[in-house]
Amino acid sequence: MALLEIQNLTVEFETATGWFKAVDGVSLSVEAGEVLAIVGESGSGKSVSMLAVMGLLPWTAKITADRMLFQGRDIQDLSPAARRELIGKDIAMIFQEPVASLNPCFTVGFQIEEVLRVHMGMDKKARRTRAVELLRQVGLPNPEERLGHFPHQMSGGQCQRVMIAMAIACDPKLLIADEPTTALDVTIQKQILDLLMSLQAKNGMGLIMITHDMGVVAETADRVIVQYKGRKMEEADVLSLFESPKSNYTRALLSALPENATGDRLTTVSDFMTGAEAAGEDA
Question: Whole-model pTM?
Answer without folding.
Answer: 0.90
